[in-house]
Design goal:
It is built from 6 helices and 2 strands.
Length: 136
């Protein structure tokens, strides 16, 4: 696939956990080289350089990253899809697959099982009230 052809989120294959981790690094770095991704990844967890380069190649084939035109010897990469778009799709898949399609179940789980601070709970209350006001 040519880098210039953008795919919609529905056309993009899902990401494995390792691909998600590597994609997170690319999103954090923005435009970067594979060497920069390797350094960033290996700050928290060691992984063979060849493995990371293979994952980056797969992400490019899948349409998640693209090459940046450069005169440098090394390829430069950048995200082709925003973190927010991938996050929304991943959350929809999570709600559908693990919570029976019920957003209420995921909120119930988060409130009961996760360590939410009072600030977190207050933010959730604010968001609910904001949504209720829009519905009126």
């Amino acid at each position: 696939m040519a880098d210039s052809k953008k795919r919609t989120m529905k056309e993009l294959p899902p990401l494995s956990r390792l691909e998600q981790r590597i994609m997170g690094i690319v999103w954090n770095l923005g435009e970067c080289s594979s060497a920069e991704v390797i350094v960033a990844h290996n700050e928290t967890e060691r992984l063979a350089e060849t493995t990371i380069r293979t994952v980056l190649a797969n992400l490019r084939k899948k349409g998640y990253i693209e090459l940046v035109p450069t005169v440098e010897r090394q390829h430069r990469l950048k995200p082709a899809v925003s973190r927010e778009k991938v996050g929304r799709r991943t959350l929809r898949e999570l709600v559908s697959g693990f919570f029976g399609g019920s957003p209420q179940q995921i909120f119930s789980y988060l409130i009961k099982e996760e360590q939410l601070s009072e600030d977190d709970l207050e933010e959730l209350r604010r968001l609910i009230e904001e949504r209720q006001q829009k519905g009126k």
